[in-house]
Amino acid sequence: MEKIIQRIEIARQFSDTPGPRSKDEGEFSGEEFLEKLLLPAYEKSIAGGGKLLVDLDGTEGYATSFLEAAFGGLARKFPPSEVAANLVFKSEDEPYLIDEVQGYIADARKAAMAGAPR
Amino acid sequence: MSRQPLFVAMVIFMALCGMFWAAHIGWYGLSIEHKLDGVNVATLAVNVFIAYFLQYYFISRAADNRSEKDILIDGLRDVLASVRQCRDTVLACQDAGKITPTSAKSIKLLFRKIANGMENVETAIEMSRCSGLKDECKEIQHALFSYKSAATGGNFPSKPYDAQAFSYQERTYRALSEKLHDLVFKVNQHQ
Known about the structure:
heterodimer, A: 3-stranded parallel beta sheet, 3 strands, 53% helix, globular, B: mainly alpha, 2 domains
């Protein structure tokens, strides 16, 4: 059984209309989400030895750029394998999003293994 | 209802009567042998079974298949309609040279609708007799992901699509559309 230490509900805690990739591109960006919510919650869950549950439901939808900036961004700050192991996703509205997000984390992992600049 | 089977049955029946009459009058040395042959009776029974009972099985099976295919094709038709609607919205943004918040929301909602529609189709395919086609759904999911990345990746929605992004979108859109059409045809032809 996974021990969930932290939980983020994007629609309730951040925005039900997630926006673009970076902060200078508009409100509720992936970068803003990473800095304000995802990163602090991830660090707390790692410190507590548990996992972080990210609830993707309840929003109007996600742009690819938002998801890549947030979760790919996290996997560029921490070892991608660690990020993949410590994040748990809930997405009943759009179940395919979980694969999509895991794909961004995996891409960050591939880039890290290839020695690409972060 | 076609009258052809009734006509054929009447022709066969009249030919049978004619043959019995010819045997009765001894035409060309024909005769009727009044004895029961077990093998012939069994053959007759099998023929009657095939003619009257097996056809119902195949008819009902064919009807079930058609109903399943109709459900799957309807689902795919909805997905195709949403994909076209999404492309129209993206094209409108391209023409306008900007992506308004309303358009951005609409594009994201349409992608959500398309993805959920494909999930439903995939689940229905797995439950149907066309379950062998589930790998095609995986390919469509990949194509959908490429189209979504092309339409909502990069600088979406802060900057308008440039010519290069638009060209990539068109390629990914066509690939997705082709795969969806291909699946519709395969479902329709599935035996």
